[in-house]
Amino acid sequence: MASDEKIMLMGVDFSDGAARALQYAVQLAERLHNRLHLIHVYEPIAMVAPEAVLLTGEVQGQIAAERQERVRLLEEWVGRQVAGRVPVRTNVVDGLPLDALLGEIGRVQPELVVVGSHGRGAILRMLMGSVSTALCRRSPVPVVVVPPAEQGASH
Length: 155
What we know:
By secondary structure, this protein is of the alpha/beta class. The chain contains seven helices and five strands; from the N terminus they run βαβααβαβααβα. The protein has helices at residues 16-32, 45-48, 57-81, 97-108, 122-128, 131-138, 149-152; strands at residues 7-11, 35-42, 88-94, 112-116, 143-146. Helix 4 (97-108) packs parallel to helix 6.
């Protein structure tokens, strides 16, 4: 990677919000002449509740197959959504979304991060937390949060 290469990082969860955020990220990357680095965080059950899972060979095989499917889905999604408009790199990493995104920020060193918002209500956000909110607080680089379509039209 060239030292003068400008990178924009985006988290992808295959949701409608991520598709909307990717449209925004591609347009911005075109204007800024940035490479777009897309990351999908694969969160296998062993990551969520490691004490509850005995990793037998069969379970390990299922996790590996599911991870490979995520890699395939990301490549397919990028082909449909980006269609060669900007240079793109993709990565599927295992882990919890916030930790994985922060890790990729440290590894890739983007100038900007783009994420989509699911548009959950205040109660659900308070109970579950928000990856985008936590990322805004902890990221060492600016984070652009793209609202869902229904919120974007009303503001």
